[in-house]
Amino acid sequence: MGKIKREKSIVRWMVEFYCKKKHKNRGRLCDECNQLLTYAHSRLDHCPYGEEKQSCRRCITPCYAREKRKKIKKVMRYSAPRMIYYKPYEWILHLFK
Fold first, then answer.
1. Handedness of CA 21, 22, 23, 28 (dihedral sign)
2. CB 75 within 8 A of CB 36
3. Residue 26's pLDDT is what?
4. Residues 6 or more apart whose Cβ sits within 8 Å of residue 32
5. Which is nearest to 41 in space by CA: 84, 81, 92, 4?
6. Which residues contact 76 (CB under 8 A, 6 or more apart)?
7. How many CA atoms lie within 13 A of 91 on its CB side?
8. The dihedral of CA 79, 81, 84, 88: what is its sign?
9. What's the pLDDT at 1?
């Protein structure tokens, strides 16, 4: 699995988990979370570094708009620590890659 595809999968899980727990949505994303996920996936699709990309947090040319960056950080701060219980293998890959 390529790096972009793996990151898309992880972001999808984090946004879905966040929406399920915080917005109490079951089975589908709320509009706000769906827009955030679509935005995150489009940013990954258009990353100028492609498969050679580093972590978005360490990127020298961040492509997220300020408001979206705040939202995705909030989602990741909530979901990432809990990922170890639900997806431990992916959590380890996400942590060390």
1. negative
2. yes
3. 79
4. 23
5. 4
6. 14
7. 12
8. positive
9. 65
**Dihedral sign, CA of 45, 48, 50, 56?**
negative
Distance CA 89, CA 84 (A): 8
What residues contact residue 93 under an 8 Å CB cut-off, 6+ apart? 6
pTM across the whole model: 0.88
**pLDDT confidence of residue 95:** 72
Q: Tell me phi and psi for residue 17, to 5 degrees.
A: -65, -45
Q: What's the maximum distance between 2 C-alpha atoms anywhere in the chain?
A: 37
> In this predicted structure, what is the pLDDT of residue 97?
65
pLDDT tens digits, 26-73: 778 999 999 999 999 999 999 888 888 777 777 788 788 999 999 999
Q: 33: closest CA among 42, 45, 49, 22?
A: 22
User: What is the distance of C-alpha 86 from the center of its chain?
Assistant: 15
